[in-house]
Amino acid sequence: MNQQDAAIATTFGQLPALLLTSPDGAQASITLYGAHLISWRGADGRERLFCSAKSALDGSKAIRGGVPVIFPQFAERGTGMRHGFARTSTWRVADQGLDEGWAFAEFALAPHDLAPQHAQAWPHGFELRLRVAIRANDLTMRFEVRNTGGEAFPFAAALHTYFLVDDIASVRIDGVETEELVISDKFDRVYENVAPRQALVDGGVVLTLRQEGFTDAVVWNPGAEDAAALADMADEEYRRFVCIEPARLEGEVLQPGEAWRGEYHVS
Ligand code: TA6
Q1: Which terminus of the chain has fewer Cβ atoms in its 10 Å neighbourhood, N or C?
Q2: What confidence score (pLDDT) does residue 99 get?
Q3: 0.70 cut: is pTM over it?
Q4: Cα of 73 to ligand 1 centre, how many Å?
Q5: Residue 45 CA to ligand 1 centre (angstroms)
Q6: Which domain holds residue 160?
Q7: What are the distances in angstroms from CA 240 to CA 23, 162, 218, 236?
Q8: Do residues 141 and 255 make contact, with C-beta atoms less than 8 angstroms apart?
Q9: What is the SS3 assignment for 87?
C-alpha cells in the first residue's frame, strides 16, 4: 500500500469525507463537516461507532453519531452555541498518509474557516487540529487547540464518542465510578478528574479507553423517552449506543502562543 491509498476522498451522505485504510485492513471515515469520525472498523472488520439512520448528512445540522468534536463550549455551559461551533464547521485536510502502519489524517480549523456569525461570537485567534489514526484494532484521536491571537481565552473541549453496542441494557462501563456502571434508563453524568483508563464491556467485547490531557469524562444515553423526542434519532436506536466522552469541561485558559492537547486511545 502506498501513501495515496491510505486516505482517499469519498462522500458520506452528501458530505465530502476521507476514507482511511491501514495496511492491516482497519478503516475509518471522517467528514470534513465537523472533522467528524463517523465510522471506524478495526482490522477485525467490526463497526465500533454508532450513527443514527435519521442523522442529517447534508451539513444542515450536526451528525448524530460517530465522534462530534465539541469546542469551545460544552453543552449549555456558557453563552455560546450548544456544544460549540467545531462540529458544524467545515474543516480542512492538513495532512494524511501512513506512519509506521498507521493510516492517519489531520484536519484543521481556524477563524477564517468559520461562518461569519461564529467568528464574531467567538472573536479569538486560534487553530484547531484533529488527528485521527488507525491501525489493527486501535484508534487514536489527538485534538489540539492553539492560541494564535494576542489575548488569552478559556475553552472547553470533548470528543463526544458514540460507541455502537449490541444492547445498552447489557453494557458495563468500568473506570468512571468506583463500582462498575450499568445503564438502565436515561443517563447523563459528568465525571470530573476521572481515571484516565476506562473499559466498555459489551458482551464478549471489551474496548479499552484511555484519555490524556482530557481531565473529565461524560457518559450519556438518552433513554427511551428523550430518544423519542430527538428528531434525528429513531425511537429504538438509544439501545444501540452509549456515549463515553473524554472532556476538558472548564478551567483551561490558553495564553497567546500556547497550545493544549488532548488524546483518546481506543482499542
Ligand atoms: O454529552 C451529553 C450531552 O450534553 C447530553 O446532555 C445530550 O443532550 C447530548 O450531549 C447530545 O447533545 P446534542 O446537542 O448533540 O443533542
Answers
A1: N
A2: 97
A3: yes
A4: 12
A5: 29
A6: 3-266
A7: 29, 9, 18, 8
A8: no
A9: helix
What pLDDT score was predicted for residue 1?
73
Residues recognised as catalytic? 160, 245
Q: Which residue has the cell 427511551?
A: 224
Q: Provide residues with CB under 6 Å of ligand 1.
A: 62, 75, 82-83, 160, 188, 218, 220, 243, 245
Q: In this predicted structure, what is the pLDDT of residue 4?
A: 67
> What are the mean pLDDT values of the chain's consecutive 10-residue runs (267 residues total)?
85 97 98 98 97 98 98 95 98 97 98 96 97 98 98 97 97 97 96 97 96 98 97 97 97 95 98
Q: Ligand 1 centre and the CA of 188: distance in Å?
A: 8
